[in-house]
Amino acid sequence: QVQLMESGGGLVQPGGSLRLSCAASGIFFSTNSMAWYRQAPGKEREWVATIASAGTTNYADSVQGRFAISRDNAKNMVYLQMDRLKPDDTAVYYCNMYLSTASRRRHADWGQGTQVTVSS
Fold first, then answer.
1. Largest CA distance in the chain
2. In percent, how much of the chain has pLDDT > 90?
3. Is 104:33 a contact under the CB 8 Å cutoff?
4. What is the pLDDT of residues 27-82, one digit of tens each?
5. Residue 103 carries which DSSP code?
6. Strand runs (DSSP E) across 13-87, as ranges?
7. Which of 72, 86, 99, 109 has the most C-beta neighbours closer than 10 Å?
8. Are strands 10-12 and 114-118 parallel, antiparallel or unpaired?
9. Closest Cα to residue 32, out of 24, 40, 42?
Protein backbone atom coordinates (compact mmCIF):
# COMPACT_ATOMS: atom_id res chain seq x y z
CA GLN A 1 0.00 0.00 0.00
CA VAL A 2 1.33 3.37 -1.06
CA GLN A 3 0.42 6.38 1.03
CA LEU A 4 1.10 9.88 -0.24
CA MET A 5 0.45 13.10 1.62
CA GLU A 6 0.97 16.41 -0.12
CA SER A 7 1.13 19.76 1.62
CA GLY A 8 2.27 23.32 1.11
CA GLY A 9 -0.24 24.61 -1.39
CA GLY A 10 -2.06 27.87 -1.07
CA LEU A 11 -3.02 31.13 -2.69
CA VAL A 12 -0.23 33.19 -4.18
CA GLN A 13 0.02 36.16 -6.52
CA PRO A 14 1.56 35.83 -9.98
CA GLY A 15 5.31 35.91 -9.68
CA GLY A 16 5.23 34.47 -6.20
CA SER A 17 6.65 31.25 -4.82
CA LEU A 18 5.51 28.14 -3.00
CA ARG A 19 7.26 25.03 -1.75
CA LEU A 20 5.30 21.79 -1.83
CA SER A 21 6.13 18.75 0.26
CA CYS A 22 5.21 15.11 -0.14
CA ALA A 23 5.55 12.39 2.46
CA ALA A 24 5.60 8.90 0.97
CA SER A 25 5.30 5.47 2.53
CA GLY A 26 4.77 1.93 1.33
CA ILE A 27 7.43 2.05 -1.38
CA PHE A 28 11.15 1.54 -1.65
CA PHE A 29 11.53 5.27 -1.75
CA SER A 30 15.27 5.52 -2.20
CA THR A 31 15.31 3.28 -5.29
CA ASN A 32 12.35 4.77 -7.17
CA SER A 33 11.99 7.82 -9.33
CA MET A 34 9.52 10.26 -7.83
CA ALA A 35 7.41 12.80 -9.63
CA TRP A 36 4.98 15.66 -9.29
CA TYR A 37 1.79 15.86 -11.31
CA ARG A 38 -0.95 18.44 -11.47
CA GLN A 39 -4.55 18.64 -12.58
CA ALA A 40 -6.28 21.87 -13.49
CA PRO A 41 -10.08 22.15 -13.56
CA GLY A 42 -11.50 20.39 -16.60
CA LYS A 43 -8.13 19.03 -17.68
CA GLU A 44 -6.29 15.74 -17.51
CA ARG A 45 -3.68 15.16 -14.89
CA GLU A 46 -0.32 16.14 -16.35
CA TRP A 47 3.24 15.32 -15.46
CA VAL A 48 5.27 18.21 -14.06
CA ALA A 49 8.66 16.97 -12.88
CA THR A 50 10.65 13.83 -12.09
CA ILE A 51 13.62 13.13 -9.89
CA ALA A 52 15.43 9.82 -10.23
CA SER A 53 16.98 7.94 -7.34
CA ALA A 54 20.40 9.19 -8.40
CA GLY A 55 19.16 12.77 -8.36
CA THR A 56 18.76 13.55 -12.05
CA THR A 57 15.75 15.71 -12.84
CA ASN A 58 13.41 16.35 -15.74
CA TYR A 59 10.71 18.97 -16.15
CA ALA A 60 7.75 19.70 -18.34
CA ASP A 61 8.42 22.52 -20.78
CA SER A 62 5.76 24.62 -19.09
CA VAL A 63 7.68 24.74 -15.79
CA GLN A 64 11.29 24.44 -16.96
CA GLY A 65 13.44 27.04 -15.29
CA ARG A 66 10.81 27.95 -12.71
CA PHE A 67 10.28 24.75 -10.70
CA ALA A 68 12.82 22.56 -8.91
CA ILE A 69 12.17 19.05 -7.64
CA SER A 70 14.26 17.57 -4.85
CA ARG A 71 14.18 14.63 -2.46
CA ASP A 72 15.35 13.57 0.96
CA ASN A 73 15.66 9.80 0.95
CA ALA A 74 16.35 9.60 4.67
CA LYS A 75 12.97 11.20 5.36
CA ASN A 76 11.01 9.66 2.46
CA MET A 77 10.18 13.16 1.29
CA VAL A 78 10.00 14.84 -2.08
CA TYR A 79 9.67 18.57 -2.63
CA LEU A 80 8.71 20.96 -5.36
CA GLN A 81 10.00 24.51 -5.20
CA MET A 82 7.86 26.70 -7.45
CA ASP A 83 9.05 30.17 -8.37
CA ARG A 84 7.69 32.86 -10.68
CA LEU A 85 4.27 31.29 -10.54
CA LYS A 86 1.74 31.98 -13.27
CA PRO A 87 -2.06 31.74 -13.29
CA ASP A 88 -1.72 28.71 -15.59
CA ASP A 89 0.04 26.90 -12.73
CA THR A 90 -3.25 26.83 -10.82
CA ALA A 91 -4.07 23.18 -10.18
CA VAL A 92 -4.19 20.44 -7.61
CA TYR A 93 -0.66 19.09 -7.26
CA TYR A 94 0.02 15.42 -6.60
CA CYS A 95 3.14 13.43 -5.89
CA ASN A 96 3.73 9.81 -6.77
CA MET A 97 6.28 7.43 -8.14
CA TYR A 98 7.15 8.26 -11.70
CA LEU A 99 4.47 6.55 -13.79
CA SER A 100 5.63 6.21 -17.35
CA THR A 101 2.45 4.91 -19.01
CA ALA A 102 -1.19 5.91 -19.10
CA SER A 103 -2.17 2.54 -17.66
CA ARG A 104 0.09 2.98 -14.67
CA ARG A 105 -1.32 6.46 -14.05
CA ARG A 106 -4.88 5.22 -14.41
CA HIS A 107 -4.47 2.47 -11.85
CA ALA A 108 -2.19 4.25 -9.42
CA ASP A 109 -3.16 5.22 -5.92
CA TRP A 110 -3.31 9.00 -5.66
CA GLY A 111 -3.38 11.13 -2.57
CA GLN A 112 -5.65 14.08 -2.02
CA GLY A 113 -3.18 16.51 -3.50
CA THR A 114 -2.63 20.09 -2.48
CA GLN A 115 -4.32 23.07 -4.10
CA VAL A 116 -2.19 25.77 -5.67
CA THR A 117 -4.02 28.89 -6.76
CA VAL A 118 -2.17 31.67 -8.56
CA SER A 119 -4.29 34.77 -8.82
CA SER A 120 -4.10 38.50 -8.35
1. 41
2. 82
3. no
4. 777 889 999 999 999 999 999 999 999 899 999 999 999 999 999 998 999 999 99
5. H
6. 18-25, 34-39, 46-51, 57-59, 67-72, 77-82
7. 99
8. parallel
9. 24
Point out the least confidently predicted range of 11-20, 55-64, 105-114. 105-114
Closest of 83, 75, 89, 101 to residue 5, by C-alpha: 75
Count CB neighbours of 71 within 10 A. 21
The average confidence (pLDDT) of the chain is 94
Q: Which DSSP state fits 44?
A: -
Task: Round to whole Å and give the CA distance between 45 and 16.
Answer: 23
Element (H or E) spanning 106, and its range? helix 102-107
C-alpha of 117 from chain center: 15
Picking from 23, 27, 25, 24, the residue whose alpha carbon sits closest to that of residue 7 is 23
Query: What distance in Å separates the CA atoms of residue 115 and residue 58, rounded to the nearest whole number?
Result: 22
Q: Which amino acid is at 62?
A: S
